[in-house]
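call fold(seq) -> tokens
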Amino acid sequence: MGVNLGKLLSGLLVEGHLGGRGKPPTGALPPEIEEARRRLEELPYMGLRGLVEGVALVPGGFRS
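ret:
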């Protein structure tokens, strides 16, 4: 299973800031939100891997 943490968290940040209102009236986010969004997008892709043995999942480690 892989997760692009940067995209996920930056999207949640913007969605949370807007509070379901859609786009901001000016079309731009406040500078501090935009800076936080850019920094979050720098986070790496993360993945967990494993094997299925019978009916059990056996951890195979972490990768990024």
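Residues 3 and 32 are 25 Å apart (CA to CA).
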